[in-house]
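Q: Sequence in, structure out?
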Amino acid sequence: MFMHTRSLNRFSFRFLWVMLLVGLASCGVNPDSSEQPFDGASIHLVWSQELGAPINSPPLRIGNVLIVAPVGKPLVGLNAETGETLWQYDPGVMIWDRAYGTDGKRLFIGIDGGRYVALNPVNGKQIWETSLGINSQMAPFISGGIVYVPTTFAGPGLIGDPTGKAKLVALSTEDGRVLWDFESDNYVLQTPFRQGDVLYVGGSFSSPIEVNEGGHMRLYALNAANGSVKWKFESEDGFIKQLYATDKFISYIAYRDFIVGLDSSSGELKYQADTGNWVPTLSGHGEAVFYGSANTSVHAVDINTGRDLWLFNIPEGTFNYLAGAPVYLPSNELVFLTQQGDIFSLNASTGDPLWHFQTDTLAPRTGLSVSNRWIYLSDSDGILYAYTD
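A: Exactly. Output:
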């Protein structure tokens, strides 16, 4: 079991490579569109499928096809309600198993060699391919007919280059044309987030100045139309795990496990609050940011102040903390998976428990996904499970 420690003397380039192995939130996962809450008493396992390798990102449902990326194996499209294999996509090189997302019509994914492709999710056939020149190992952010693709010079399967300048590339969803690109001074970029006309993206940069804990991080606010820089913010928080923004504030969690709030118009630091322990990632909805820490606490935080709106302590077992990010549903449910295979649903406004379901999942490497009243998750043995009510 991975346990967080605050005893590291300095953040290293090698440690970033290890951090990239930890499951982070995947953008583009279709949320459940139903406004009716789950019937917790009726949830049951419908099918399971052994895929032969661990899964590092939550399954992605597009229509009636479930997309799964087992580590080191072809990409797989399954029937979302039966688990039947519909197609496999094998480009002949490594598929970056965290680097996928969808606009609801196409599947976008990064593959080795700096290539980026769009697939038809119905049959797995390639629609277009673009050469980025730099590998993309993180999920894109997709909005308004544009795929915003982060790139990296550090990560699993790569020879790290801390002097590299990672780009954020804006591609047309239709044909993969490069609309613009922004060359950062970071060697790795995390999944971006767009709010209005501004695109936020952060990552790590190399510096000869050593820090006692954390590492050098830089966050950019870009004009979403052309990639020009509005402002940038630097800190020693270490590798950024995920960020969320409203029209007034940006919130992120990085290696040092503080939730940090910035003014969205200027990048000015507004608050910094200790999360209490290691946090894998976060999610957001409206004015609330949701995350779980390794002390088994689940938090809803006001993005305007950084203060807890509510706190829920997972009652089922020691170190039974969250796998991945909580998923917000239109029924005002917050659904999440724990390290010991428990699914919980909370009232997203109050944190009150709605239902709890014990699965057969063993040591999940990533969180769950929810779509069309189905819940999908996997375990460390590469077994995929599908539940519904």
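Residues 340 and 350 are 24 Å apart (CA to CA).
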